Amino acid sequence: MAFLGGFKRVVERISVGGAVVGCVGWVMLMLLATANGVGRKFAYPVPNAIEMGQSLMVAGIYLGVAYVTMQRGHVNIDLLTRRLPPRIQAALDAMVNVVAVIIFGVLTWASGVVGWEAYTVRACKIAAFMWPIWPFQILLCVGLGMFVLQLVVNAISDVNKARGAG
Questions:
Q1: What is the pLDDT of residue 5?
Q2: Could you tell me the pTM of the whole model?
């Protein structure tokens, strides 16, 4: 049981770290949008602002999704389940988390394949200058992997609640 507690703490720290890095991405995106907007007024827009903005959004979204999952902050429609006993609700939540682990595990693997291919060819977008997109394709895989780890932690927690142990 100590292993599971340690695993949970490590995954939660990773989730918080991802959220912090994702927030930095959002701040950079805000600064970029502001600089681009002001620059356009004076006929000097930021080169590659769209490409940079798209890349920063990937970081902001996918590095933060594990933290939202840790906080159980995703939309949860409980219209049919709210009157069920808590242990049954926990069992249903565990099943949903297991299904999500499978689905997002496959997506993580697929994004890893795409990210590796992008890395090997050093994929770039051609605009005002070459903008590398391969690091952000790898970040997509990393963010999804963090999400899957957090789903595993949530599933274990829900199974324990369903068993009456948590």
A1: 83
A2: 0.90
